[in-house]
Amino acid sequence: MAVFTLGALTTVPVSARPDLVAPPVWEALVASGIQDAVGVVEIDPSVSDTAATRATYGLSTDTLANCVVVAGKREGEERIAACVVLATTRADVNGAVRRRLDVRKSSFLAMDRAVGLTGMEYGGITPIGLPADWPVLVDARAAASAAIVVGSGIRRSKLILPGAVLAIVPGVEVLDDLAKPLEG
Where are its TM segments located (predicted)? Predict the structure, then answer.
């Protein structure tokens, strides 16, 4: 059973608190058989954004991950993917992501569409439980992390899991060049 402690956060296995994840997240965890390998912790939803979570709970930026939804078009067909990168980096949306989606230009999906298509809350979108036809692109640095903090599908909790567990979620592709270090 997964119990993680990072900063001031201590998790319980998601199987003990399925109420702390969005329904599609719970369904995907159970379908993948990893509900006991992933931890969940309730947080104040007003500090769900990455910087506020880091500051409030005393987390290192290299343990925080962001999941963003991007899209592009090719011959009139929209192609959507989710990207998971550490908070110390940014997704290379118009480089690695554009090439992987095989589109001319990719950009972040509008908030209302991302929320509507994922069934998750804005600020809580997570790589687990996304539509099955979306690739989930994970930066190799996140996949190599001993433990990362990422959304749970809702703003009032966070998941903590080993990068290696995230790497085995159906639909996940680990890419070496998905992210670039933040400048400044």
Answer: none
Please state whether the predicted TM-score (pTM) of the whole model is above 0.90: yes
More confident residue, 81 or 123: 81
User: Which one-letter amino acid corresponds to residue 16?
Assistant: A
Q: Which long-range contacts (CB under 8 A, 24 or more apart) does 42-46 make?
A: 42/17, 42/156, 42/157, 43/9, 43/156, 43/157, 43/158, 44/156, 45/154, 45/155, 45/156
The domains found in the chain, sorted by start residue, are: 5-181 (3.90.960.10)
C-alpha separations of 150 from 62, 106, 173 in Å: 12, 23, 17
Residue 78 phi, psi (nearest 5): -80, 135
Tell me: pLDDT of 183 over 80.
no
